[in-house]
Amino acid sequence: MASEAFVTRIGRALAALLAALLLAAGPARAQATHISPRLVAESAMPAPGGTTTLALTMTPEKPWHGYWVNGGDAGFGLTVEWNLPDGVSVAPFRYPVPDALILFGMMNHVYEHPYALLAELRVDRSVAPGSDLTLSGVANWLACTDKVCVPERAVISVELTAGDGTIPAGARARFDGWRALLPQPLDRAGRWERRGGSVRFAIPLPASVAIDAPHLFVETQDVIDYAAPQRFSRRGDHIIVETSAKGAREGPVTALLRTGEGRGLSLRLVPGPVPAAGEPVATDAAGINMGLFWTAFGGAILGGLILNLMPCVFPILSLKALSLARSGGDARTARIEALAYTAGAILTALLLGGALLALRAAGEQVGWAFQLQHPVSVLALLLLALAITLNLLGFYELPSFSGGQALADQGGAAGGFWTGALAAFVATPCSGPLLGAALGATLALPAWAALPVFGGLGLGLALPFLAIGFVPALRNRLPKPGPWMSRFRRWMALPMGLTTLALVWLLWRQLGNGDQLIWPAVAVAMALVLLTHYGAIQRGDRRSWLLIASGLLFTVSLGATVAEVARAERTAEGSGSTFSPDALAKARASGKPVFVYFTADWCLSCKANEAGAINRAAVQAAFDKAGVVTLVGDWTNGDPVITRTLAEHGRNSVPLYLWYAPGADKPEILPQILTPGMLIDKVGAK
User: Fold this and answer.
1) Phi-psi region of 591 (alpha: psi -120 to 50; beta: other; left: phi over 0)
2) Span 369-376, mean pLDDT?
3) Which residue range forms the structural domain that includes residue 588?
4) Quick one: pLDDT at residue 341?
5) How many domains does the chain have?
6) Listed GO molecular functions (predicted)?
7) Could you tell me whether strands 79-83 and 106-111 are parallel, antiparallel, or unpaired per DSSP bridges?
């Protein structure tokens, strides 16, 4: 078996070598290929003195695959012999995150699905507008299956004309999708060292950054044995990677760390001491990060437990517990109801989590930040917060809160189950400590591992009722119903009302157009009218038609007023400097310091920095004195240009603060927590 594997390895290596020789000797001619290439440009009219992005899309047939820039033990990446017009240059292609494929004991760095290589094309300022910039080249690559490798080549070309650099919206969206698959550059260098037959790497990565199914793809040759197992561990803010050495390479090393499905970081590592291994990053056969899973699961349980103190859930839990205490039921009945309550809470949390995962699988972005970039989501949260606020104030009663609470008053397993389901459902608009991190971790877990995290939320939500059901002393010590519950509930309307006002402000900021705000205003007003009308019916008010008539008048006047106010406010705010690549280029060309910050109205840390540092009078006076040009990138509604800029600086969220000193090639990335003194010191003001 060993000799057969050796022969297979030698044969595959010879096949790769033969492929390279054939590519070098063979003429460029049109031929059928197993991987179809296509060269496209983001802008068909690149501007003189500017750049545009080229994409070489590669579409393999089944079961063929192409290779990363370093193909691993067998195979090689793509090369292009360009035929370029005068004044045009093309940078090397950038590759998306590859997959690791072991065949016959050899490690291959491959793409078994369609992929795109990206490169920047630069046009010299001397090129006259209207010039034909059509470029072409001969692309060479290796296509393989698990049995055979074939050298392939094709002529690629794209028609370009020197123009104004216009990028069609469709092309921008398509290229943004390809850019999102590129590894993000790590802003700090790591270290590596060789110890006998082993090689070790220290990669600077904050402990808060989760990794899923990690693998280190080393681009530099003669450093590691590609097929050898890789051991990952965490020591503080470093990932330690240990594997077998191969070759005698010295000096800096370039590599790519895969952090999850289709996600990665490009690295530069310099020779230096590497700390000892830390806590192992354990993965199971499916490649999930078990440390992340257990942390998220525990955080979801604790976060669900804390939710019982939130005004959304506490009335349901307390009323059901008091009902159980008054019933005088025996221990067996208490345990049955507690277990049924737990089953209802967990099942509902699982159903909600499954719906969330299904949306993500359908291509929707999941996460608080991304949800709040959509006005429809904000409006839905606003209506829900308004409904809860009015209920807590007593404008109307939900069946689960008062005399009509058939579910909560129903005894036995059915009553416990439906009350638990209701508690979990009502808890969905609430947020509490630990839940954000726990549910955010589900983005880095496969669906089958993410679902238990949602189930943990339901379990945490049910823990108090489990304790009440199984510990008689707790049931006996519960306070009796009284006026305190009504007073407490009305006090809980205050934080929910403040949340409602914050969502109104955010929706107004997002839409920014009077005509667009009319219908959300109508929806909010009608919700107010209908809920108040529902409360009037509950109280037996026979004049409820007066509420409907006055509500309609209120709706019309509110819509007209909001439209005028929003229109006037937009005019007042229209004088700010807005970030764009062109605006940044002009600002840097002026020779003045440039301060760029990216923010969003739903980002609390962004707003805190703006109020506490950026917009302070002393800071603005220092900026004015030094002639600082300030550009603001607003990511409230999402923006592909800003998203791309964040990715270029190794970030995927706001805030991001960039300081361009006059004449500097690259910006300085400022900390995410700013102080007035920090900004004043940047311009040397005393």
Assistant:
1) left
2) 52
3) 581-682
4) 83
5) 4
6) protein-disulfide reductase activity
7) unpaired
